[in-house]
Input
Amino acid sequence: MALTVFNTLGNRKEPFVPLTPGKVKMYVCGVTVYDLCHIGHARANVAFDIIVRYLRYCGHDVTFVRNFTDVDDKIIRRANQEGVQAAEISERYIRAFYEDFDRMGLLRPDVEPRATEHIPEIIEFVRRLVAAGKAYAVDGDVYYSVRGFPGYGKLSGKNTEDLLSGARVEVDERKKDPLDFALWKSSKPGEPFWDSPWGPGRPGWHIECSAMSMKHLGESFDIHGGGKDLVFPHHENEIAQSEGLTGKSFARYWIHNGFVNVNQEKMSKSLGNFFTLREVLEKVKPDVLRFFFASSHYRSPIDYSDQSLAEARAGLDRLYRVKEKAEACAAAGARATSVPGGDEFLPLREAPAKFSEAMDDDFNTAAALGRLFEAVRALNRLAPADPPAKRDKAGQFLAGYALLEPLFEVLGLLQTSAQEYFRGVAVVTPEPAWAAASTTGPTVEVSPLTEEEILRRIEARKAARARKDFAEADRIRKELDALGVLLEDSKAGTTWKYKG
Output
């Protein structure tokens, strides 16, 4: 199956065919650096991180560009409130961005342009639009003439007449048309500015991304991405000014991720359900948050709640238990051999192909995770209770794990050792789905074992007691207790139950 992508431009799935075979040029709108990133930013950045990883996994040579908007009304407003230069605000929050997203395991883009580093390109872009009659200057401002671009609205599906009726609410009399948008803004007191043919000023938001993407990727490139909220007006305006200048198709595929809701409500500071990524990472492991995002299709809205995080933690624990077993097999000196034949191990042998089949359907990470869990169930049948004594079986287990490891890497999961991941885990009982949803943010992390894993540990403890290795038996009992599993010994044998 060839990769298909849902293209917002046309509102349909299309086969993905790069402009140059084997090479993909991709631009994603980054953040405006005036504050800490929130979980909506996290969802977008993880989605495009996975897309880049998968394209590279498929063998494409990807040039990934993601910008920083470091001059903007919000940055200037924050700087004036604090009595500092706008550059100080943008530098502060660029550093914070790296601190937060490095913890999330995001790949660094190949190019990370900043708007303030591309002022000459922006001015030249605007100058050419004015010279071509596509834009006009008035009192030091420069506006793009929307009516001069017949294709306006083709990305968002919006009709210019409908937009016009809405635009009349607040009309700037200097504009030739209420729909026209600013390419260059004349400077006001207390604002950063650069000299231009129209006087001192600064770029408008939309022109920044067009100038930066075209400098680093060319006049036409493969993928332009961002959050769903950017479709209009930002991306619509990018198309108008870029194609208005070059007469060429700007980006072939437009990819947009869905919103994050909190307890089934839109995230909003006024509702008290607004969380920065930094706040979330104080309570939730980065891998858990990545798993949570990957468990839904990137275009779907996703509901952030204690319950959904608990479910994500439970699922990720299962994957880390597999890594824990692989690390134990390797520590025992086993070497990967081959996965046995037979239908029971077919999901394991077919895992790479099934994973790709899911991801080829518009990067369907939710379906891809389903294929991984099918493979993990088969792999667990190979897990030796005593790796040093069962090196042949341990070698088969390592061979199976080696099939899955690149797939985990595509999703950016299992990025730390199992020992590090399980260190300091708080064992609690997750709230049932029907319980009243909290609006105070995530407060629990759940670490259940599967029934199969619990029984395997019970068998290992039984074997240890049989050989009178009571220290090992006690260690296993304490391990299970720490993971929320209570053992009860009787003459009939050992039974177990989850605590709470």
Q: What stands out?
A: The first strand starts at residue 4 and ends at 7. Residues 451-498 form one domain. The first helix runs from residue 39 to 57.
